[in-house]
Write a structure and sequence with these properties.
By secondary structure, the protein is of the alpha+beta class. The chain has 22 helices and 35 strands. The strands form eleven sheets. Strands 3-4-5-7-6 form a five-stranded mixed β-barrel. Strands 10-9-8-11-12 form a five-stranded antiparallel β-sheet, covered by helices on one side. The chain has a five-stranded mixed β-sheet with strand order 13-20-19-16-15. Helix 4 packs antiparallel against helix 18, helix 12 packs across helix 13 and helix 14 packs antiparallel against helix 16.
Amino acid sequence: MKEQDVLDFMREQVYRPLLFDELTLALGIEQTKEALTKFKELLSQMESVGAIVRTRTNRYGVPERMDLVVGHLRAHARGFGFVVPIDRTLPDFYISAGDLHEAMDGDRVIVRPLKQTAEGKREGEVIRVVNRAHKTVVGVLSTFRTYGFVKPDDRHLTQDIFIPGDQLFGAVDGQKVVVEITAYPGVHQSATAKVIEVLGFPNDPGVDILSVVRKYGLPEAFPADVLQAAEVISHEVTKEELAQRKDLRGESIVTIDGPDAKDLDDAVHVRRLANGNYLLGVHIADVSYYVREGSALDREAFRRGTSVYLVDRVIPMLPPRLSNGICSLHPQVDRLTITCEMEWSPAFELVRHDIYPSVIRTKERMTYQAVRDIVMEQDASLLERYAELVPMFHLMAEFAMGLRERRMKRGAIDFGFAETKIKVDEQGHPLELIKRERSIAEMIIEEFMLAANETIAEHFFWMEVPFLYRVHEAPEVEKMIALNEFVHNFGYHLKAVGNIHPRALQDLLEHVRGRAEETVISHVLLRQMKQARYAAQSLGHFGLAAQHYTHFTSPIRRYPDLMIHRVLREVLVEGGLAPERYVYLQAIMPEVAEQSSRAERTAVDAERETDLLKKIEYMQDKIGEEFEGMISGVTGFGMFVQLDNSVEGLIHVSYLEDDYYHYHEKLHALIGERLKRVFRIGDRVRIRVVKASKENLAIDFALVAKLQAEDVEADVEARQSIPVKSKNKGRKGSDEYNFTRDGRTKMPREAAAPKASQGRNRRKKRDETASAVTNGSLLPVKGGYGSASLVQDVRPRHKSGKKATSEVAKKSSEDSFQAREAARQRKKKERQLLNEVSSTYGVRVKDKGNKRAKHKSD
C-alpha cells in the first residue's frame, strides 16, 4: 500500500473517518502482523507530516475534509504569527498570540480556521504541532543560582528557554551556547533545554558566523558514510562511458566565474555557423552520473538542498572531493557533462536545440574581470595571453547582448542592483566593503544560462514527464494598485493593473532609468514582487516573462538541478520512464520542490544575516563618523538609509527633532506636520553613525542634513507637492489628500481663511445641507425617500409628540448617554460574576463572552 493510495481513498466523497481496523479492511490490507505493522508505520509517517489527521477518537482522515489546514508557522517577534499553508492555493492564516498554544516558529502545524477579518484576512487557531522545526537553539546564556535562561538569537523565538542547573555543562554567564530542547513550551510554561555546545563569548573571533551556522542548522561536517561514498568514486573516466557520449574535447570551451569559485559547474562556447546563425553550447557537469538516486550521497544532498555561501566559508551540498574535484570543470582535464546545444538565428530566434551527454576538456578557467578587460578595455597583456580565444569572447558579447535585448522586449524585469563583497582577514574581521557592478562578463554567463534553462524547461514540459520548474507568480492585484497609486505621484501610469504584464513593469523601469526617481521606484517595485520558488507544475516565471523555466545549470550546488539531470538522463539516454517510475516521480516531485524551496530560503536568510553581522562589525569602528546615503525605506517609526558602501541603518523618528513627522503610505514618505518637510525613498541625506549592535542586528543613524534639494529648487518642488491634510482627522485613504494631475496639492479657497471663519463656514454649510436634505429633521434621508413631501412625512417625533428640535435632540442625547452608561454598568457586574465563576470552576472567560477551559493549578 502506497501513501497516494491512502490519500485517494480518504478523499473520496463517500469516505468518513475510520478506525485503524476499519481502514485495514476497507483497503484490503493483509491481516498479518507484518503487514499491519507496516501499514501502521505508513499512517504514522503520513500523520507526522500532516498528510492525514488522527482525531481524538483515533479515526483517520485528510485535513481538508475536516475543515483543517496544514502549514508552517511564521512567528512574529511581537507574539502573533502567520501559518503559510502547504496548499499554495489557500491564503495565509493570521494566528493571535493566544491561539499559538505550544507552537514555535517554523513548526508544521494543523490550523482550524476561525473567521475572516474585515480586511479579508483569515484567522485561525493552532490545534496540533505535527513536526517541530527546532530541536536546537542558539542564544546567550544568563545564569542564576541554580538555573539559567537562554535568550534565543532568533527573534522569532519570543520566549527565553529554561536551563536546569545540572544541564549547564560548564557554560558561564554571557556565553553563546547551543541548547537541545528537552521539553517544548506549554500553555503556562517555557521550553526546557540542556546545553550541548559552548561557542564562546559573543565578541570572540569567529563566534558570530558560527552562531549563524548553528542557528540555521547548517551541517558543516559530512557523515562518515557520505565521505566514504565520495572517496570510492574514481577520477578516471572509463572508455566504455566515453564511447556513449558525444566527444566535444576539440571545441574551444571555457568556464567564466569569480576568482574564488571552486565548484565550476558550467562551461560555454559560441561559434558562428556557415549559414550565419549562432551556435551556443552550454555544458553542465554531469553530477547525476556520480550521485546515484537513493545513495548516501543523494540522501545527504537532498537534506542540504543547496550550497551555502557565507562571508568567510562555503558549506557545500556535496563533499569537496566531488564539488571542488571530480565534478568541477577544471581546465585541461576530461569531464563528463550534459550539453544543451542551441542554434539561434541572427534575429535571435531559437532555430533548433539538442540535449545530450558529452565529454569536454575546457581550454581556460576565465574570470569575470579578465573577460571584461578583454572585451571592454582591450587589455594588451590579456589580448596576447588569450589570443586564440579573443574572437570568441567578442562574439559571446555580441550574441549575449542580442539575447538580452530580445528578453527585455518581451518584458523581462531587470533591476540591476549592485552586489557587495565583504573582505575579511584571517580572524574574520571585515576589512573592506567592495561594491561589484554587473559587467559584460556577468551578463554573458547570465544570458547563456537563462537560454539553456528556458530551453530545457520547455522541452520537458511538452514531453509531459514529471519535472521540477522554477516558478515566479504574478504579484497580487492589491499590490499593483498600490504601486500604480504611488507612481502617479511621479507622473507615471501602469496599464492593466488588474492583470499586469511584466512588460508594463519593465517599461516603467526603462522610463525612470537615469532619473532622480529611479531608485525609489525600483525599490518599491521590488517589494511588490512575490518570491520565486520550485514547483512540480510549470506556472511561468513572471520576472523573466518566461512561460516555462527551470534550474538546470548548477547541479553541484542545487538539488533541483541534480534531480532534473536525473530525469533528463532517464528520458533521453535510458529510453524513457516505465509506468511505475512515472507514477513514483510524479508523487515525489512536490516534496522535492517544497524541500528545495525551504532549503533555499534558509540559505538566503543565513547568507544575509552573516553579511549583516559583518557590516555591523565594520561600522562599530565608525561610531560618530558621518556618511552620505540614500533613503531606502520609510515606515511609521522612521526611515532606513543605505550608505554608498551598501550598509543600511535606521534613523528613528524620535531623532527627527525639528517637527512631528507622519507616515504617508501612498507616498512612502515621512511628512512634517508644521514645516511640511518631506523624506521619501531615494532622497539623499547625510547621517552620523550612533550605534551598531550585533545583539540586536541593527545600526542606528542620526540625521545630519538632507542633501539633494539641488538643491533648493528640488526642496521647494517637494514642498509644493506635499499633500495638505484634511481637517477630518479620523478619515483615511485617498480622501485625506487631494492632488491635481501634476501631483501638486489642490487647496480650496477656504484653506487660506482663519480657523474661526473656517469653522463657521463649515457649520453653516453643514446646517444648510442638512436642512435641504432632511427639511429640518435630525435624521438623514434613507434610500427610497426621494421627494420633499415624503421627507416631511418621515420627520421624527419624540414622546412629547413634538417635531425634533435642538432641545429635544439634546435631551435625547442625554437619555442615550444614560442608557449606555447603565448598560456598561450591567456588563461590568456580569463580568465580575463571571470572573468569580472562573476562579471557582476553572473556566476562563474571554472577551465577548467566549468561554475556554483554563488550566487550574494545584
